């Protein structure tokens, strides 16, 4: 059995290490590229949202590398992500690929099926071993997300921001070569140390931008055209509201251990939106408000074209923008997004934020005397 | 003095209007409907709604614009779920919020949450909450709702007898007294799509009427027996969690597998998230059973002439197919 899974940012690092610990062979799909997108676009329904297209591309490229089992998570609505497995299975069947797809659906009252699927995937029935490995995977997920968060900060402060890129590039190459949890954690630690050595300029006061929106677009750098890096080089310290580790925590942490970030966002969003709208629509509104309250300079909302929950959120963000006096930029991506236009909009947004900050400082100087 | 309740003639109006009408009338309120969708409503909606929304949501905004200065209350309930473990479209889930944040100077909006996801008991809570605006007498509210429900069930019976809602609603509103009777037509066309696209004659460009004029019998998902729908939808490898999806996919699976239709036309609004999935499911099945399938995508730029041409071509194809299918040319 050769396992593969769709890409979503850095998730592959944890998933790979975890399954390697089970003694399984893992085929990490090649990094998302133009080819991935072209393959996906060619074989997917025309009007489906972008993540499915990328998923299909990932699968095909993995199957070419020898994978025969695909692992995916599911959901039960109301966002169309819940129907991804059904459509994906049909598409792969039409293409003549003989692969096994294992879906981890939320239990919906039927725990047996979920447990069955898990044991089928990991090839062991020992629950202690499973939990242990799973926990280790979770820790890696957290550490990787921390590493990237840290790199975002350093990039904004660094004298030469491209040094950070070099280190992170080396990391993503090396991580494919190491095997298992222990080696992966070692590599993460080493990369941390390298980042700490980068020369920084402490007099910088970088702009702060929070990134909110649909989870896949926020997390997968190929889809959002590496927005964190682009902004970092413009001297912006970026924070993403959604990361895979936060998602795992939100979904698996028992509620008596305190509020997860997402639940805090629900609270914040309450005056604007009371109920769920599917996907991360409510979190988008809430997190934008939380960023505004923390004093961020601006917020960027990312969504794939025609994403239903985020369209609702976008409408509400219009009011949030006014109420909290914070600039919010909505960027919509799909397979036709051009990089140049995207960069121009980012630059314009950053310019606007800089100017706002200058004006505010200026006012402060004027009225102090 | 009785209150004026504004009901936009869009989206779920096409599903539940008879129910709402009876309920509010029983409570002594006056109902103000917006006019049939037209160009100016569409334009108003397009300019007030966020660009990325789909056509029916934009049109809904247009209807609200028309009503907002004429009524005391606007009725835009927050429909989350109308059946256990099922949802409606995410945009309907957030509809009141979308309207409130897009249009200024609104009268008070009745945006009561209707959520039967976990249990049906929530419905009565929601009903009482709506009724409270008009009377403090809970019994009266309940009575009004029971009456409305029983009339609504009569309306549903009309549908079950094969009257498509576009006609049923007309009968109901007493605009037209007789249902257009069809000559015996040989071909049955299944017209699929969300009710608010199918039955809004402006959005669907009177597609159903045109088909009927060509002497085609039109079937829509609403008139298919609910038992059949449930049976066929349960054959899907995954439980369908959209109520609209169940109806569309279930009805079409039934009719396709029973070979009860000669062709399928799917009317979809551009950028509809549900349809991107549903169309894939339906068209795959249609292809497998060799039933002609065509997709008509509508948005605010749709031109009627182009749709007509496609419709004519589709009808011709169906007729020729029937006439010539077994004919193999001797000329090679």
Question: Structural class per helix/strand content of chain A?
Answer: alpha/beta
CATH topology of the largest domain in chain B: Rossmann fold
| CATH fold name of the largest domain in chain A | Rossmann fold
Strand sequence of the main sheet of chain B, in spatial order?
Answer: 2-1-3-5
Structural domains of chain B: how many: 2
**Could you list the spans of chain A in which at least 5 consecutive residues all have pLDDT below 50?**
none
The quaternary organization reads as heterodimer
Largest sheet of chain A: 4 strands, parallel
- N-to-C CA distance of chain B: 79 Å
Radius of gyration of chain B: 21 Å
Q: Which CATH-level-2 architecture of the largest domain in chain A? A: 3-Layer(aba) Sandwich
Measured by DSSP, the beta-strand proportion of chain B falls in 5-15%
Q: Give a short account of the largest sheet of chain B.
A: 4 strands, parallel
Total beta strand runs of chain B:
10
- What is the share of helical residues of chain A? 55-70%
Instruction: Output the number of helix runs of chain A.
Output: 15
CA distance, first residue to last residue of chain A: 73 Å
Protein structure class of chain B: alpha/beta
InterPro entries (chain B): CoA_activase_DUF2229, Dehydratase_Activator_Redct, FldB/FldC_alpha/beta
Keywords (chain B): Kinase, Transferase
Pfam family, one (chain B): DUF2229
GO molecular function, one term (chain B): kinase activity
Summarize the structure.
The complex is a heterodimer of chains A (369) and B (332). Chain A has 15 helices and 8 strands.
SSE topology sketch:
The complex is a heterodimer of chains A (369) and B (332).
Chain A: E1 2-4, H1 11-21, E2 25-26, H2 34-43, H3 50-64, E3 69-73, H4 84-94, E4 100-104, H5 111-122, H6 127-157, H7 162-174, H8 180-197, E5 207-213, H9 215-219, H10 227-233, E6 236-240, H11 244-252, H12 261-269, H13 281-293, E7 298-304, H14 308-324, E8 328-333, H15 339-368
Helix pairs in contact in A: 1-6, 1-8, 2-3, 3-4, 6-7, 6-8, 6-10, 6-11, 7-8, 12-13, 13-14
Chain B: E1 4-7, H1 13-26, E2 30-33, H2 39-48, H3 55-67, E3 73-75, E4 78-81, H4 90-93, H5 95-102, E5 109-110, E6 113-115, H6 122-131, H7 138-160, H8 165-173, E7 187-192, H9 195-198, H10 207-213, E8 216-219, H11 226-233, H12 243-257, E9 263-269, H13 273-288, E10 293-298, H14 304-324
Domain DUF2229 (chain A): 8-71
GO molecular function (chain A): kinase activity
Keywords (chain A): Kinase, Transferase
């Amino acid at each position: 059995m050769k396992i593969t899974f769709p890409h979503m940012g850095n998730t592959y690092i944890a998933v790979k290490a975890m399954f390697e610990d089970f003694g399984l062979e893992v085929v990490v799909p090649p990094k998302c590229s133009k080819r991935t997108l072209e393959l996906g676009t060619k074989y997917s329904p025309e009007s489906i949202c972008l993540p499915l297209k990328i998923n299909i591309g990932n699968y095909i490229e993995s199957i070419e590398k020898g994978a025969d089992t695909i692992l995916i998570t599911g959901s039960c609505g109301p966002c169309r992500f819940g129907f991804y497995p059904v459509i994906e299975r049909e598409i792969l069947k039409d293409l003549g690929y003989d692969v096994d797809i294992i879906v981890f659906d939320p239990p919906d009252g039927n725990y047996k099926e979920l447990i069955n699927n898990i044991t089928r995937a990991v090839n062991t029935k020992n629950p202690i071993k499973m939990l242990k490995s799973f926990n280790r995977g979770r820790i890696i997920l957290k550490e990787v997300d921390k590493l990237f968060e840290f790199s975002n900060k350093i990039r904004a402060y660094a004298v030469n921001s491209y040094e950070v890129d070099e280190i992170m590039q080396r990391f993503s190459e090396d991580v494919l070569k190491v095997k298992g949890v222990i080696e992966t954690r070692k590599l993460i630690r080493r990369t941390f140390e390298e980042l700490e050595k980068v020369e920084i300029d402490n007099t910088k006061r970088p702009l702060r931008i929070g990134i909110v929106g649909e989870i896949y677009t926020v997390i997968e750098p190929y889809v959002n055209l590496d927005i964190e890096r682009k902004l970092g080089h413009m001297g912006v310290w970026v924070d993403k509201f959604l990361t895979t580790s936060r998602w795992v925590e939100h979904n698996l942490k028992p509620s008596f251990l305190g509020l997860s970030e997402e639940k805090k966002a629900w609270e914040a969003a309450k005056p604007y939106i009371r109920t769920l709208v599917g996907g991360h629509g409510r979190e988008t509104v809430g997190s934008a408000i939380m960023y505004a309250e923390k004093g961020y300079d601006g917020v960027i909302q990312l969504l794939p074209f025609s994403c239903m929950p985020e369209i609702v959120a976008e409408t509400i963000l219009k009011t949030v923008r006014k109420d909290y006096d914070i600039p919010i930029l909505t960027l919509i991506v799909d397979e036709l997004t051009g990089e140049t236009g995207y960069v121009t909009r980012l630059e314009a947004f950053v310019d606007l934020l800089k100017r706002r900050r200058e004006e505010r400082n200026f006012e402060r100087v004027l009225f102090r005397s | 003095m009785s209150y004026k309740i504004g009901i936009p003639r869009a989206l779920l109006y096409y599903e539940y209007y008879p129910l709402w009408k009876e309920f509010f009338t029983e409570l002594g309120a006056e109902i103000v409907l917006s006019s049939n969708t037209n160009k100016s409503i569409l334009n108003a909606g397009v300019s007030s709604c966020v660009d990325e929304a789909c056509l029916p949501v934009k049109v809904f905004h247009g209807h609200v614009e028309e009503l907002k200065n004429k009524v005391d209350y606007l009725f835009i309930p927050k429909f989350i779920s109308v059946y256990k473990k099922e949802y409606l479209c995410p945009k309907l889930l957030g509809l009141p919020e979308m309207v409130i944040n897009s249009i200024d100077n609104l009268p008070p909006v009745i945006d009561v949450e209707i959520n039967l996801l976990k249990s049906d008991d929530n419905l009565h809570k929601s009903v009482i909450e709506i009724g409270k605006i008009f009377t403090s007498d809970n019994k009266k509210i309940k009575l009004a709702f029971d009456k409305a429900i029983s009339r609504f069930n009569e309306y549903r019976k009309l549908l079950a007898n094969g009257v498509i809602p576009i006609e049923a609603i007309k009968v109901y509103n007493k605009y037209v007294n007789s249902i257009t009777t069809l000559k015996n037509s040989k071909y049955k066309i299944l017209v699929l799509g969300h009710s608010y696209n199918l039955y809004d004659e402006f959005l669907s460009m009177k597609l159903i009427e045109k088909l009927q004029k060509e002497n085609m019998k039109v079937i829509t998902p609403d008139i298919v027996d609910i038992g059949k729908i449930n049976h066929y939808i349960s054959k899907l490898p995954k439980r369908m969690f959209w109520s609209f999806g169940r109806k569309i996919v279930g009805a079409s699976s039934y009719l396709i597998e029973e070979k009860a239709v000669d062709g399928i036309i799917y009317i979809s609004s551009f950028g509809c998230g549900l349809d991107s999935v549903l169309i894939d499911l339906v068209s795959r099945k249609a292809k497998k059973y060799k039933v002609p399938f065509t997709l008509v995508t509508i948005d605010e730029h749709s031109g009627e002439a182009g749709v007509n041409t496609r419709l004519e071509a589709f009808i011709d194809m169906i007729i020729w197919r029937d006439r010539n299918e077994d004919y193999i040319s001797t000329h090679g």
